[in-house]
Amino acid sequence: MHDDTTEPHGTLTIRTLAMPADTNPAGDIFGGWVMSQMDIAGAIAAVERAQGRVVTVAVEAMTFIAPVKVGDVLCVYTTIERVGTTSITVGLEAWVRRNRLDVRQRVTEARFVYVTLDDNGNKRQVPKEA
What secondary structure letter does DSSP report for 31? Predict the structure, then answer.
């Protein structure tokens, strides 16, 4: 997780539009929706590194910094932080572009852990990097 709030860290993995159906009663985008987008992005990064199936086993940290509004473009950036024998830890930053402007704001950061599985659903070793 980073204190530098001027530029995203990691690889842009998902871009999606926050829609009215995803709002909480206060009119902000529901935190669970943001979390699910981050989980999808983290899984994409973990699958690429694992070269196969992964499942989410833990959310080690998650901090909501600012609300996401309807119409914001949510951009999730991923960084592989740790590779264990059967697990991959992914650092995530969610940023928004508001009102179709180039101004970005970091809204959420998190760390998710994924475990690699074989075709039978058993843990398998993470392959060495090529």
Answer: H
